[in-house]
Amino acid sequence: MSTASVPLPNWITYGLIPLLNLALAFLISGLVVWSIGENPFEALRLLVDGALGRGDAIGFTLFYTTSFIFTGLSVAVAFHAGLFNIGAEGQAYLGGLGAALVALALDHYVPWYVTMPFAIIGAALFGAAWAFIPAWLQASRGSHVVITTIMFNFIGAALMVYLLVNVLIVPGNMAPETRTFLEGGQLPKLDWLMALFGLKLGPAPFNVSFLIALVMAFLVWVLIWRTKLGYEMRTLGISPTAAVYAGIPYSRTVIIAMLISGGLAGMMALNPVMGSSARLQVEFVGGAGFVGIAVSLMGRSHPVGIVIAALLFGILYQGGADLSFEMPNITREMIVVIQGLVILFAGALEYMFRPAIVHLYLRLKRA
Amino acid sequence: MDYFDTLVSILGSTIRLSIPLLFTALAGLFSERAGVFDIGLEGKMLAAAFASACVAYLTGNPWLGLLGGIAISIVFSLVHGFAAITNRGNQIVSGVALNFVAAGLTLVLGQAWFSQGGRTPQLAGEARFQPITLPFADALREVPFLGPLYANVISGNNILTYLAFAAVPISWWVLFRTRFGLRLRAVGENPGAVDTAGISVTWLRYRAVIVAGFLCGFAGAYLAIAQSAAFIKDMSAGKGYIALAALIFAKWKPVPVMFACLLFGFLDAMANFMQGKSVPGIGEVPVQIFQALPYVLTCILLAGFIGIAHPPKAGGVPYTKER
């Protein structure tokens, strides 16, 4: 008998199976740590302490979390429409250009809260624009959006390096970056929010874009589950033929979903560019676009799950950086291994345990 | 004659830069023709580069290094197969995951084993694949035009280079002239028909991904123990994706794959050559144009402006046997 058609209660599908997959990913990561001669439990303790032990550590953790919420939402929105957007990395890179142009144009004249809405729009527009051509190619030419978004990551990286080295660079400067934004082009830190919990933020760049990310998470929830467009996207994601049969316009829905996805990825740039370094730098995205894939898969493409998963990856990134100081034998790249294993087990192998669990479940139900 | 020397040197580096692309694109050809998308080419190449550098360092023998690279690359292929074929998981997600695992694990293990910031120790001469001087290369060097071409472009490469070019007709023969190849292509177009004929779709696809792993092993070994003398952090540097682009650009056919890889290798060589040089009348051409051009060309192809690329019909779709 095939086990695929046996329905399981929600707590197994959305609770137990993801947890089992995650546990397996961490078990193997622990084995890797053990195999290079370090104690995995000690490593875990150092990691958690490095991510949550002090006020500034929490600040860094939440700073990373902010970026991952944006990119996780970006991947998830496309995923609901049945599209796999690997291009969040490039879209975020271009989003940085949008945010930086707004900041450079306005920071002399207005305070940050006037710049912010324009910067959000700028970042989203540039990110969405970078998603448009892959979306159009998918919608009208049928070329796979996975392939084209990968290509656009590389094209975007080349374009941004060109712009930073040749156009946006401060004349006479060696470093390929824009000038530092004045206060009117920076997003302020959230010291007051940390102070509410009796914590000192210190040098950590935890800033207002965290709140923007939470608002976006809520808006994505509204979009996907409370609007007609969201319904159309989900229908398309589950069955394109059924969607077309029901009169849902394929091309339009694909393009809109990708534009929203690209816009969300673009907004990620607000956090590092305007919230932390106050200038546009080469490779500021630093892989956050790819982390978004892991975050979205782990959060089952639901905004609440994504915020939790983003927090977990924030802890991993900050704690992992700290851990590599404490245990020099474990390099920072251990996080990349964990990330890959999470994507593997929570994504590609998500149904590995299902047949066994179905058998167990049926046996328990009978008993 | 100056221009000619430059041309010879660009062509020589074109060959050297195309080889990893060629092995990898042929790997992707086998996998994708059997209906298994493989975004993980990049990761397999990187893992193979690391493994071959480690084994070559420990044994001092490049052939054992190559075997080590192939073995690790096949292990990655089998994990991809287990996820994509046996568990019918998302093939793209699996490939992305394996790329991360390879990118991270090579550095974590490299640092833990050798403590050189993720590098492997420098290999001595005999632990690498050495350039081979073909017969009469030195004698013919003085012949105008053909002499330098023969001596510097065709001769003087290492054995893996010649194997890469040999792999092109062999791949063509396997895919288009053997029963295995016919079935492999059929399973990428219509697995149901293959199943009806009583042939195992699963086993056939597994063999395809194993061949892909085998070829990626050569690409990785070429990077680490032929072109360089050590594994360096992230040394595949997106070549797996360029190979993927070349595969699409060549419309999933072996001989065009070779030309696409040579074209993309040529663009890479031009990017290196043009750095800081100015073209009369145009001025300095930004190197980023050459870096982006392979991807731009592939996207233009995908948009349908240079013929139409038809991917294998069942590509990316896991096969479910009906019951």
Largest interface: A-B, 47 and 52 residues
From the N-terminal CA to the C-terminal CA of chain B, the straight-line distance is 71 Å
> Gyration radius of chain A, to the nearest Å?
21 Å
Tell the overall outline of chain B: globular
The CATH topology of chain B corresponds to ABC transporter involved in vitamin B12 uptake, BtuC
**Spatial ordering of strands, largest sheet of chain B:** 1-2
Figure out the total of helices of chain A.
Answer: 16
Order of helices and strands of chain B: HHHHHHHHHHHHEEH
Number of strands of chain A: 0
Mean pLDDT of chain B: 89
Q: Give the uncertain stretches of chain B in residue-range form.
A: none
Q: Overall 3D geometry of chain A?
A: globular
Largest sheet of chain A: none
Number of strands of chain B: 2
- CATH architecture label name of chain B: Orthogonal Bundle
Sheet-strand content of chain B, in percent, reads under 5%
List the helices and strands and how they pair.
The complex is a heterodimer of chains A (367) and B (323).
Chain A: H1 10-35, H2 40-52, H3 55-80, H4 88-106, H5 112-141, H6 145-166, H7 191-196, H8 209-226, H9 228-238, H10 240-245, H11 250-267, H12 270-277, H13 288-298, H14 303-326, H15 334-348, H16 354-366
Chain B: H1 2-33, H2 41-59, H3 62-86, H4 91-114, H5 137-140, H6 146-154, H7 159-177, H8 179-189, H9 191-196, H10 201-227, H11 239-249, H12 254-274, E1 278-279, E2 283-284, H13 287-302
Antiparallel strand pairs in B: 1-2
Task: Describe the structure concisely for a colleague.
The complex is a heterodimer of chains A (367) and B (323). By secondary structure, chain A is an all-alpha fold. Chain A has helices at 10-35, 40-52, 55-80, 88-106, 112-141, 145-166, 191-196, 209-226, 228-238, 240-245, 250-267, 270-277, 288-298, 303-326, 334-348, 354-366.
